[in-house]
UniProtKB/TrEMBL annotation:
Keyword Transmembrane helix: yes
Taxonomic superkingdom: Bacteria
UniProt-listed InterPro entries: ComplexI_NDUFA9_subunit, DoxX-like, Epimerase_deHydtase, NAD(P)-bd_dom_sf
Residue ranges annotated for the NAD-dependent epimerase/dehydratase domain, each copy included: 11-123
UniProt protein name: NADH-flavin reductase
Gene Ontology terms for molecular function: protein-containing complex binding
Organism (species): Thalassovita autumnalis
PANTHER family in the cross-refs: NADH DEHYDROGENASE [UBIQUINONE] 1 ALPHA SUBCOMPLEX SUBUNIT 9, MITOCHONDRIAL (PTHR12126:SF11), NADH-UBIQUINONE OXIDOREDUCTASE 39 KDA SUBUNIT-RELATED (PTHR12126)
Pfam families from the UniProt entry: DoxX_3, Epimerase
Signal peptide region: none
Length: 438
């Protein structure tokens, strides 16, 4: 009689569709774990890992009792949930401190292991709320006295690009000028595959309970050298001109990105990311090696194992063009509306001179101005991007259709008022193609 197959170990991964969480889910599934991802957005989850099992919830609102129910019969919980900065509905204390405290309290008295994905450099005295709240979350786990392993990676490099790693690729792909920034800032990295291998090793119980370790390559390099290495990996030529970027300009960029956060944009250029970079991203692999962990590869070895294709170069070049396209669309539509408002009588006359009634022409021009201004503002809002771009295309086609009926002669106008609207409609297609963040 055949013995029944052993029950596979069960793992729960919080933040399962993030850069680290998604990679951890894949690695654990490949290692034979039965994995359930936890996240808030079903759309993002189904896009990243459609074949996986999911539980959808806002993890910052779950109570200790909720966690007890969710973690019942689970062997390992991997907490890869995290955020960079407060704002736009994000609460760092809730994600980095309250969540681990409630989760670890729920695991007291159980055999479930908690693997906390923290960050190298966390400290109560750190310069950013990101590191301070992470440190408090780590401390809450330790204080709970549960079976835990806390992993603190440095800068994570993988095939997928998200947040800061996407920004680094974009900076490396900038043409013509090499903008020198943070020239004395040391940076260490870890391959995403090395991080997920460490998670699997800890999940299997091969790392002692209570281990707290940085995960990183052994050597650091200055930030400009990191950018040069990425550019070489992308197969791009070195820019012909190298110029320093003044610190105050970098600070202004960060403040501008923080402002965009109020509109729902989570830019990797926000002040927290820039401050963290300025402080340096370094760690000490000693504790990980002493715990029996595998050494992490150096950056050049990490990059040599990653394919660099035309898709990589496209992404890197388009990353910074995306906000430029949005800004251009906003300015175009706002300018159109404001010019129409300033030249209201002349705009009305365009229609009345071709036989339209004064009342109907006035309403049509006023409606057009309102739509132009509304679309120009809406496209700046993250949640308004898609409807705004679709609206721009629809309004442009509406303008051209109605204009052709009322004033077909404008197609032959030497200034091309009809012809010039077509590129604007095509430009609105680009954000629709690039809006995905995961």
């Amino acid at each position: 009689m055949t013995a029944p197959a052993p029950t596979p170990p069960r793992a729960l991964v919080l933040g399962g569709y993030g850069l680290i969480g998604a990679a951890a889910m894949r690695a654990l599934m490949a290692a034979g774990f039965e994995v359930t991802g936890v996240g808030r957005s079903e759309t993002a989850a189904r896009r990243v890992l459609p074949q996986a099992r999911w539980h959808f919830a806002d993890v910052t609102t779950l109570s200790t009792t909720d966690w007890q129910a969710l973690c019942a019969d689970v062997d390992v919980v991997v907490n890869a949930a995290g955020a960079l900065q407060d704002g736009g509905g994000t609460d760092l204390a809730a994600i980095h401190t309250t969540l681990p405290a409630r989760l670890s309290a729920a695991l007291v008295g159980s055999d479930t292991r908690l693997i906390q994905i923290s960050a190298a450099g966390v400290s109560e005295e750190a310069s950013t709320a990101f590191f301070r709240t992470k440190a408090r979350g780590d401390a809450a786990i330790v204080a709970a006295g549960i079976d835990h392993v806390i992993l603190r990676p440095t800068l994570v490099i993988g095939a997928a690009a998200y947040g800061g790693t996407a920004l680094l690729r974009a900076v490396a792909a900038l043409p013509l000028i090499d903008w020198r920034i943070l020239e004395d800032t040391p940076v260490q990295t870890i391959a995403l595959s090395d991080l997920t291998a460490a998670i699997v090793t800890a999940a299997k119980g091969d790392i002692a309970a209570g281990t707290i370790a940085d995960l990183t390559e052994a050597e650091a390099r200055p930030f400009p050298e990191l950018i040069r290495d990425l550019r070489h990996w992308q197969g791009l030529p070195a820019p012909g001109l190298s110029l320093p970027l003044p610190g105050f300009m970098l600070s202004l960029v960060g403040k501008g990105a923080d402002l965009l956060g109020l509109f729902g944009w989570r830019s990797p250029l926000r002040s927290t990311a820039l401050t963290a970079l300025s402080d340096g991203i370094t760690g000490d692999p000693t504790h990980w090696l002493a715990a029996g962990g595998r050494p992490c590869r150096a950056l050049n070895d990490t990059l040599s194992d990653l394919p660099t294709t035309v898709q990589e170069r496209w992404f890197s070049r388009l990353f910074l063009l995306f906000p430029l396209v949005i800004a251009t669309l906003s300015l175009f539509w706002l300018a159109s509306g404001l010019i129409g408002l300033a030249q209201f009588p002349a705009a009305v006359e365009v229609l009345t001179s071709r036989g339209g009634s004064a009342g109907l022409a006035t309403v049509a021009v006023a409606a057009g101005i309102f739509l132009d201004l509304a679309l120009g503002l809406m496209v700046l809002w993250r949640r308004g991007l898609r409807p705004a771009c679709l609206g721009m295309i629809a309004v442009t086609l509406g303008y051209l259709g109605a204009g052709t009926l009322v004033a077909p002669d404008l197609w032959a106008d030497p200034l091309g008022p009809f012809v010039k609207t077509l590129p604007a409609a095509v430009l609105a297609l680009i954000p629709l193609a690039l809006e995905d963040t995961r």
